[in-house]
Design a protein that fits this description.
Layout: E1 2-7, E2 22-27, E3 30-34, H1 41-48, E4 58-60, H2 66-69, H3 72-78, E5 83-87, E6 95-98, E7 101-104, H4 111-114, E8 119-122, E9 126-129, E10 132-134, H5 142-148
Parallel strand pairs: 3-4, 4-5, 5-8
Antiparallel strand pairs: 1-2, 2-3, 6-7, 9-10
C-alpha cells in the first residue's frame, strides 16, 4: 500500500498547505483519493508530486466537514469518471457552535446536488474493493455525544 498526503495544515517543503486533509492511496494496483481538503490546492500538489488524479478510480469522504470536502469540485474537474463515496448520513448538515451561535462547517452548499451522478452513499460496513473497507462509527451513543459537542441536527 502507498499513501501520499496531498494537503495538510503544515508543509516542510515547497508544497502548498491549508487547513484540511487530502490523501492519495494505492492498494493492489487501485488508486483512491481520501478527502479533498478545503480548496482545490491539493490538485497542484498532486501534479508537483507526479500523481495522476485523472487516473483515480474511487474517491472517499471521511466525514462531511468543509476541510475534508470542499475540494471535491476541483477533483471532479480533474477526474471525469471516479465516483465519490460518502456515508448515507453525510450531507449539508454540519454546524459548529461558538457561544450561542451556530456556524455552518459542512460540505459546500449545493455540491452534493450538482454532482449527484458522481456521489454514492453507503451504509454500514462497505467493501469498496477487495481488502478496502469503509467503516461506520460504532461508538454507542455517538449521536448524543455529537449533539452535546455542538452539532446541530437537521
Amino acid at each position: 500500500m502507498l499513501a501520499r498526503i496531498l494537503i495538510d495544515n503544515q508543509s516542510k517543503n515547497e508544497l502548498a498547505c491549508e487547513w484540511g486533509l487530502a490523501a492519495y492511496l494505492e492498494y493492489e494496483g487501485r488508486r483512491l483519493l481520501l478527502d479533498t481538503g478545503t480548496t482545490g490546492v491539493f490538485v497542484k500538489n498532486a501534479e508537483a508530486m507526479g500523481i495522476p488524479l485523472e487516473e483515480v478510480e474511487y474517491g472517499v469522504l471521511s466525514h462531511a466537514h468543509y476541510d475534508h470536502s470542499d475540494g471535491m469540485e476541483a477533483f471532479f474537474a480533474k477526474n471525469r469518471t471516479a465516483k465519490f463515496y460518502l456515508r448515507k448520513g453525510a450531507g449539508e448538515n454540519c454546524y459548529g457552535k461558538r457561544w450561542i451561535f451556530y456556524k455552518y462547517a459542512g460540505i459546500a452548499k449545493g455540491l452534493l446536488e450538482k454532482y449527484q451522478d458522481r456521489i454514492v452513499y453507503v451504509e454500514g460496513s462497505f467493501e469498496l474493493i477487495p481488502g478496502v473497507w469503509l467503516l461506520p462509527h460504532t461508538t454507542p451513543g455517538q449521536d448524543k455525544i455529537w449533539w452535546k459537542a455542538g452539532g446541530r441536527k437537521t
